[in-house]
Amino acid sequence: MTKTVFITGASSGFGKATAFAFHQKGWQVIATMRSPEKEQELTTLKSVLIERLDVQDAASITAAVKAGIERFGKIDVLVNNAGYGAIGAFESASLGQIKNQFEVNVFGLMQVTQAALPSFRAAGGGMIINISSFGGVIGMPFGSLYNSTKFAVEGFSEALSFELSALNILVKIIEPGSAPTNFRNNMAFIKNGIPEYEPLLGKLFPRFAKVTEALKKATPEDVAATIYQAATDDKNQLRYVVGEDAQFYIDLKSQNTEPDFIRSMHDYFVH
User: Which CATH class name applies to 4-199+214-255?
Assistant: First the structure.
């Protein structure tokens, strides 16, 4: 029986690559995005339903899930991909910027998950794949808002995986590193008006690039392939790391003592 995947943030980057990857494997795809009227590629594919979904609009979430089930009968896998990064000095962030980062990356993801769960229970099972980041495992300077939302996604996913396991509903987490997507272009940069932060802030991206410049970065297609693997490998595995740079940072934290990890991060980004 043909399976169906529901993807948020499918207009570009990981989400779009994932829609193509599942379609190529013969899956039915519900590709959701904020502006479906702008989509030109996925609309040409059979067994792909394009629906409007804004994770900050509860009505659009409910409507998209309902439309997907009406079209294909059920949803087998939910891929929570929609999100963005707010980067900059925490002290300079407005309350609106802080709230918006959590509304999209955490609360929106939770609302989509809640909307899909009744259909999973009715079908006797399903899978939720949440897109996190290596930044959900380690904190980076000037990433306090983004990192905290991804840390939240990690904790939410881990706890939920145990909560849903008896219902035959699996939860998995994808932890990509840097990839050539629109993520950088879609970043929300926090305007800094505090001069004390400027020396460190100005060196952030060059230093970030230098630390892992010799390591292979994942492509959106690599991430999509890993998402498909997680959906189909029948493994009791929670986390999937994608990209040598992501593995580098995760190992830096997990394979060292905390003082050594902190010292390394200071060497890379602070001193």
Answer: alpha beta
